Input
Amino acid sequence: MPGIQGIETIVVLMLENRSFDNVLGHLRHPSYGNRSEVDGLVDPNDTTAYDNFYNRRRYKPFGTADEELRTDLPHERDTIAEQLDVKNGRPTMRGFVRSYVNATGNVVQKPPPMGFITPKWLPVTGFLAEHYLVCNRWFSPLPTGTQPNRAMAFTGCSLIDDNVKGFIPCRDLVFDWLERKNVRWRVYHHGFPFFMLFSGSLDHVLSDRFRSIRYLAPDMQSEPLDQTPQVIFIEPEYADSPVHFGFTPNDNHPPLAMGPGEVLLREVYEALTRNPEKWKRTMLIVTYDEHGGYFDHVKPPAIRTDPPQGAQYKGGAFEHLGVRVPTLIVSPWVAPRSVHDGLFDHTSILQLLAEQFGGGADDYSSEVTARRAKGIRSASEVIDLSAPRTDVPQAPLGVIRTTSYVASGAHGPVNDDQSAFVAAARSVRAHDQRRALDKYPELAHLPD
Amino acid sequence: MRHVDRVERFVLVSFALVLSACAKVHCFHVDSQTLCAGDEVRLRWAARGLVRLEASPEHPVAGAKRSNGEERVALDRTTLFTLAARSPFRRDFREIEVVVAPPAEGYGEAATCDAEQRQISTHFTLRDTVSAGPRIELLRNELDRPLVVDKDGHSVRLAAGEESPSLRGAPVTGAWTLTSPLAPEETCDEALESIGEYLQITVDMGCGS
Output
């Protein structure tokens, strides 16, 4: 960890529901990136390793544009188990098409879960992968949906094994840990932040530490170094949010296309690099909470997660990590066009925080330490330079194709996560209506 | 009398509104997903709401439909059928793509290992995925190990990567058994892991002259 001490601000941007192969798989493909060091997709016609089967018929990954899908993809605990298609104790990764057909009834030659987006549609992601670092083996912590995986990322354990309709039960948010360690932290959010869904978060999300994303660039530009947050979480505009007011969903959650998320990535990168003195002390982690039902060819390692004390798991322990997700480390402390093969999941971020601001990687919680003992490494390991780079590559300036989007929940929640957003937003409003409306004006548009 | 008419009308309209408010496609099936140009396929569906069948590219069968029904259609090119059910508050759909004369398809199934026979194998029957039209042109073994293909009692042995016209002209439908012997010293576990747990065969197809 030659340069980790040089990093003073850690920024985490967690997007939604994409697998590594869906977003970065093209980087290895000979027709696109042709980067053999990236564990992406070789030409699917040259291997049988990726083949999926439904009704005995074979389906291979295929290159696709960044298009809005007609439906979301299945990504709950039971459907992900179908996708992993564990045989003889090993995930085969051959059940993604079967899971999709069983969930949607759609039988097409090119099932959406098998699509990998070609590079011209992802100019900013491609730019960051070219100039910074790609993690080859960063997995979602649990083979299940959004809420348990975000709970792992921001609390270190999950008391639920699938999405719930109300508040997400949790013991201790990352904010509580940071405050115990006297760490300056802040959340920049678009509309409703996902953190609002965690039980016990109401006072946090109404505090001054939660600021509109519109302040990110000016804060980075003008705030003195000694007042700059040491930890920043950036919250996209969530597609599952019941109300969108002034922002287009940009969390990359299918059926949404990734164009708006690409614009967000560019804005965040430009804001963080605006002040060179701050940028040389910054590490941005861009990752995804879970794979969202998209195919990935790398079998998740057999790392068991037992239900923690007080957990409400319906399905017992998890025997494997979740599906691999795209993760980019963007910092002057990593070499351009580099990769890292270490084993990471979202709790690697908590290990990193514990190393930087606590007593070492084991200083976050017993659950995070237990995962570390099973081979999950700290995100600090990706830092491979002993001095920061002085170049600041310019993000592509061209127009990024975006699509208009109508929230699928326009006529009421259709999934548990949307229901949880509605319940949390109502609770925030009921908790302190004046402060709530001041901070989240979209609450005025939330139906009673 | 006029009052009764109004009540009946109110009940009917309310009933229709309730029905259409819950638009849903219960099922949408075709009896073959792969066929030859000119072959007929039967579409069957059950839905609720205002039901419409769409086709891409356009096909005369497209249009408004009853809630439950079936139609037989002849296809000369690959067609994506979408059955859509609509209501003022909800839309539901199912898609099925029928593939006409693909150059090749792959078929496979999870394998099991017989330690005594020292082989891994799988067996499956192709019936509802393929119509009676498509014929085998060539069999290709894309696995990194030898494969014995038994199709309706006719057997072909293919080395790793090998292709064979031995079963040319036989229908693709029917019973398939794929077998691969274990190498000396190879365990069942190693053999199954080497194929990602599935045995498969690639079939180059033709539809005759």
In short: Residues 78 and 100 of chain B are 5 Å apart (CA to CA). The radius of gyration of chain B is 24 Å. Chain B has a mean pLDDT of 92. Chain B has two domains: 23-100, 104-206.
